[in-house]
Amino acid sequence: MNGTSVGRRRFLSAAALSGLGGLAGCLGSGGVSDAGKRDVSSNPVASSLDGRPRLGPARSETDITLVTFDDPSCPSCASYHGGTFGEIESKWVESGKATVYNRLYPYVAPWGRTAIHALVALNRRRPEQFWSLKSKYYANQDRLSADNIVEETRRFLRDTDVDADAVARAAENGANESYVSTEVSDGDDAGLYGVPLTYLFEDGEFVTTIMTESFGTFSSAVESHG
């Protein structure tokens, strides 16, 4: 598992406490493209999953695959991860039924892109710390900005064994732009229309896309597909 259950639970607790955002999602326009409705083997959202943050085993080992796009600056993403996503982990991931991949799409505030660069840099160095940093972004959205995101990232990592300065420099310099561009390109090719947005697959087949709905919506979609 890329990341730990402890790290995820801390992440969920911090996000839940943030109290930010409604459940409508951060919406754009349009809808899922034909490419975004393809099976997992040829869907753009699954074309670059190697090295992406993951909960659960490799997708070949589970019946259900979820690929979720989100943005650390999105209030609806914070609400979703503090609620529904936790149920997905406890009811599907921990039982070995599902694998969840996280993809990062800069969608809301300018500081979100800088935070994404930091998250990518951290995931490459210490993948088990990814969810913890993300939780701090979600819990502190109301005071983060383009002016302070680099220093706040450094502060968030101060008490860890991570090289905080290296991660902060990567964020400040946009060192992972190729990675971020791929996230955006794959999302656009799949018709991403807002965040958080999850592409749901069962046995490799595309089922549907879901934004901030309850776990019951995910469960019902799988039951209807089967």
From TrEMBL:
Instruction: Give residue ranges for domain Thioredoxin-like fold.
Output: 61-197
Is this entry keyworded Electron transport?
yes
* Annotated organism of origin: Halosimplex litoreum
Top-level taxon of the source organism:
Archaea
Annotated InterPro entries? TAT_signal, Thioredoxin-like_fold, Thioredoxin-like_sf
What residue range is the signal peptide?
none
What is the protein name given in its UniProt record? Thioredoxin domain-containing protein
Q: Where is this region: Disordered?
A: 34-58
Q: Please report which protein family the annotation says this sequence is part of.
A: Belongs to the glutaredoxin family.
Q: Which UniProt keywords apply?
A: Electron transport, Transport
Methyltransferase in keyword set: no
